[in-house]
C-alpha cells in the first residue's frame, strides 16, 4: 500500500503528519514507522513544548524534551509544528496563581512566546501560537490570560511570535470549530478582525477530535470559509474515536470517516495538510481522556494498520 505522506504529497499537499511524545521514542517498532518520512512528513510534540514543560518556573527553561523532538524532525527531514505558546491548560502554577496585572502578564506572555519561538527559529513550519481560546458557545474562555488582559492577549502573542521567527506560519488552533455554529463563527470573526487590524495570522488549525459515525458534514465548507478570509488551514490533531470494544463494523465506519476527513482537506486548496494525534492506539490520548472510548487512530496497539489506514490513502 501507499505510504501516508507520499499519498498526501501526490495530492498536492505539504504533508501528512503525526503527533509524537518523548516517552514513545524508545519504542523501536514505533520509531521505525515514525522516522520514515514517506509515512509522516511532519511531526508535532504532543507535550514537550507546552508551557509547564518549557518554563516550569519563571525564567527557568527546560528544553531537553522539546529539543529532542525538534532534532528528530531535522534528522528525519520532517516539518515541525510548534505546539503551543499560549493555552489555558498544562500551565505551570506560577502562571495560573500569580497575582498579575495587565502589564505584568502581558510581559510574561511576550517573554514566553519570544523565548519559545526564538529557540526553534528557522526549524518550525507553523506555530500554534494560541490554543483553544473559545468556549463552545463562542465566548472567550475565562482563563488567566483573558481575565487579566482581555482578548488583546491574542494579538500580543501573535506579534511576539512574528518578531521571533518571521518565517513561521502563525496559527490559532481550536476544537469544535469543524461544526457550523457559534464557536466556528467566533473564530471566523476573530480571524477577520485580526486581518483587518494588521495582526499577523497565517492559519487556523482545526483539531478534529471526532467520533466514529459523527464526522461533521460542515468540515469542508468551514475550511473554505476560513481560507476565503486569506488564511490557510490545517487539520492538526485528527483522531476518530469509538466506544469500546471495537467491532468490524465500527472499524469499517472509521475507515469511511477517515476517508471523509482527508477528502475534505484534499478538496480545499488552502488546506495544507493533516496531522493525526499520534498514529497508533498504543499511544493515543483518547482512552485516558474519554472514558470507555478508544481505537481512534490508523494503527492498532500492535502497530498493525487498521482499515482506517486505507481510508486515509483512499481520501488522498
Ligand atoms: C494532550 C496530550 O496528547 C496528552 O498526552 C496530554 O496529557 C494532554 O494533552 N488538544 C490539544 C493537545 O491541543 O495539546 C492535547 O494533547 C489534546 C487536546
Question: How is the topology of this model organized?
Answer:
Layout: H1 4-10, E1 15-20, H2 28-34, E2 42-45, H3 51-54, H4 64-76, E3 79-86, H5 93-96, H6 102-119, E4 126-131, H7 144-149, H8 153-164, E5 169-174, H9 182-196, E6 203-206, E7 209-211, H10 219-227, E8 232-243, H11 248-267, E9 271-276, H12 286-289, E10 293-294, H13 307-315
Parallel strand pairs: 1-2, 1-9, 2-3, 3-4, 4-5, 5-6, 6-8, 7-8, 8-9
Antiparallel strand pairs: 8-10
Helix pairs in contact: 6-8, 11-13
Bound molecules: (3S,4R)-3-hydroxy-2-oxopiperidin-4-yl beta-D-xylopyranoside (XIL).
Shape call: globular
Provide the spatial order of strands within the biggest beta sheet: 1-2-3-4-5-6-8-9
What small molecules are bound in this structure? (3S,4R)-3-hydroxy-2-oxopiperidin-4-yl beta-D-xylopyranoside
The termini sit apart by 13 Å
What key phrases describe this protein's structure?
binds (3S,4R)-3-hydroxy-2-oxopiperidin-4-yl beta-D-xylopyranoside; alpha/beta; eight-stranded parallel barrel; 13 helices; 316 residues
Structure description:
α6 (102-119) runs parallel beside α8 (153-164). The chain has helices at 4-10, 28-34, 51-54, 64-76, 93-96, 102-119, 144-149, 153-164, 182-196, 219-227, 248-267, 286-289, 307-315; strands spanning 15-20, 42-45, 79-86, 126-131, 169-174, 203-206, 209-211, 232-243, 271-276, 293-294. Helices cover 41% and strands 18% of the residues. The chain has an eight-stranded parallel barrel with strand order 1-2-3-4-5-6-8-9, surrounded by six helices. Residues 46-47, 131, 207, 237, 285 line the site of (3S,4R)-3-hydroxy-2-oxopiperidin-4-yl beta-D-xylopyranoside.
Amino acid at each position: 500500500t501507499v505510504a501516508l505522506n507520499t499519498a498526501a504529497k501526490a495530492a498536492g499537499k505539504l504533508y501528512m503528519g503525526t503527533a509524537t511524545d518523548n516517552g514513545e521514542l524508545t519504542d523501536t517498532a514505533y520509531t521505525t514507522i515514525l522516522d520514515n518520512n514517506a509515512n509522516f512528513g511532519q511531526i508535532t510534540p504532543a507535550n514537550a513544548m507546552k508551557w509547564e514543560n518549557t518554563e516550569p518556573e519563571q525564567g527557568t527553561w527546560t528544553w531537553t524534551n522539546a529539543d529532542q523532538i525538534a532534532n528528530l524532525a531535522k534528522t528525519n527531514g520532517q516539518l515541525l509544528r510548534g505546539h503551543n505558546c499560549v493555552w489555558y491548560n498544562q500551565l505551570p502554577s506560577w502562571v495560573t496563581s500569580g497575582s498579575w496585572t495587565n502589564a505584568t502578564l502581558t510581559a510574561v506572555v511576550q517573554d514566553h512566546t519570544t523565548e519559545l519561538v526564538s529557540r526553534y527559529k528557522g526549524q518550525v513550519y507553523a506555530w500554534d501560537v494560541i490554543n483553544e481560546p473559545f468556549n463552545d458557545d463562542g465566548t472567550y474562555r475565562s482563563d488567566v490570560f483573558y481575565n487579566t488582559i482581555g482578548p488583546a492577549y491574542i494579538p500580543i502573542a501573535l506579534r511576539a511570535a512574528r518578531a521571533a521567527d518571521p518565517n513561521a506560519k502563525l496559527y490559532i488552533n481550536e476544537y469544535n470549530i469543524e461544526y457550523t455554529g457559534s464557536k466556528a463563527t467566533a473564530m471566523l470573526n476573530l480571524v477577520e478582525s485580526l486581518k483587518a487590524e494588521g495582526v499577523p495570522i497565517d492559519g487556523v488549525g482545526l483539531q478534529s477530535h471526532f467520533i466514529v459515525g459523527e464526522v461533521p458534514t460542515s468540515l469542508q465548507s468551514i475550511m473554505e470559509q476560513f481560507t476565503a478570509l486569506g488564511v490557510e488551514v490545517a487539520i492538526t490533531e485528527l483522531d476518530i474515536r469509538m466506544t469500546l470494544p471495537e467491532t468490524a463494523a465500527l472499524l469499517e465506519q472509521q475507515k469511511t470517516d477517515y476517508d471523509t476527513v482527508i477528502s475534505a482537506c484534499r478538496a480545499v486548496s488552502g488546506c495544507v495538510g493533516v496531522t493525526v494525534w499520534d498514529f497508533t492506539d498504543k499511544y493515543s490520548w483518547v482512552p485516558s481522556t474519554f472514558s470507555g472510548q478508544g481505537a481512534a487512530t490508523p494503527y492498532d496497539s500492535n502497530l498493525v494498520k487498521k482499515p482506517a489506514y486505507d481510508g486515509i490513502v483512499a481520501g488522498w
